[in-house]
Each structure stands twice: as C-alpha cells, then as structure tokens.
C-alpha cells in the first residue's frame, strides 16, 4: 500500500485551481450566454437589413402599378425619361410582352415617336420583367390610337390631379 503525501501548499493550490476552474466555467457559461444573445441580436439585425435591401432593390415609384400594357413590337428600348434622346434605363429590351404600367403622360412634340403608320406623343411608365422602372413610347403599346393615351395605364395630366407619375 502506497500513500501519497501532499503538502498543505500543494493541496491549497489544487483546491484553488479547482475553484478557479469552477469560477471560470461559470464566467465562460456567462460569456457563452452573452455571445449567444449577441449572435441572436446580430442575426435579427441582419434579417432587418436584408429585408430593407430587398425592399430597396424594388423600383422607386410614387404608387403601385395600376395596370398592365402589352408591348406589341420587338426590341423596344426602356428610357430614363419620356424621349428617345433620354438615356436607357436598362439594357433590357421588350418584345411582345405584357408589363406592369404605372401611368402615362403626353410629352407633346418633344416626345413624339413614329413607327410606320403609327405615331404617338404619349409615354408609359412601366416596370420591366427584369424589375427596372422606365419609360416606353405608347406607339409600341397595343390598343391606342395615334397621339392618344393607351388603355391600361392612368393618364397624368391637368385633368386629373390624383394621378402622379414618378418622374425618374
């Protein structure tokens, strides 16, 4: 039979070490709890930011789309304003597709587009299938007459102050 002898200093050191580990374990658990709460808070904040980014990714508009129009032509360019001299809002082109329409305006002689027998001074604000907000000439939208608004989108003009296109 062997007996092990420990000095009072050694047993005190062992005891403190054991208590220290217990204390540290408690602090470690507290830190893990704080870290877990912090991670949950961070995850919640990230979810909010992500939802804002998704909302921010949507096109800016004063009101939701109020209708839809059918683009009968091929390779119709979407502009940043109501004229063929305006820059393109996107590289996307519209070909025989139905798109959401916000409104339309008569841009007079400055906005006139003629294609064969068709001519129109109205421009329709649309959102493309690729989610870009922009303008197309009403000459490429089905259902209208020359130099007249097209069916499917409200007209922004002095006769109805409740219609307000989002000018971009």
What order do the helices and strands come in, and which of them pair?
Elements: H1 8-57, E1 67-71, E2 76-79, E3 88-94, E4 97-106, E5 113-115, E6 118-120, E7 122-127, E8 133-137
Antiparallel strand pairs: 1-4, 2-3, 4-7, 5-6, 7-8
Question: Care to describe what's here?
Answer:
By secondary structure, the chain is of the alpha+beta class. It is built from one helix and eight strands. The protein has one helix at 8-57; strands spanning 67-71, 76-79, 88-94, 97-106, 113-115, 118-120, 122-127, 133-137. The strands form three sheets. A four-stranded antiparallel sheet has the order 1-4-7-8, with no helix packed on it. Strands 2-3 form a two-stranded antiparallel ribbon. β2 (76-79) and β3 form a beta hairpin. The chain is elongated and about 80 Å long. The protein starts with 7 loop residues before the first helix and ends in a 31-residue tail after the last strand. Mean pLDDT is 77; it is low at 54-62.
What's the tally of helices? 1
Low-pLDDT stretches are 54-62
The radius of gyration computed from the alpha-carbon positions, rounded to a whole number of angstroms, is 34 Å
N-to-C order of helices and strands: HEEEEEEEE
Characterize the main sheet. Answer: 4 strands, antiparallel
Helix content: 25-40%
Strand order of the largest sheet: 1-4-7-8
What distance separates the N and C termini? 94 Å
How many beta-strand elements? 8
Proportion in β-strands? 25-35%
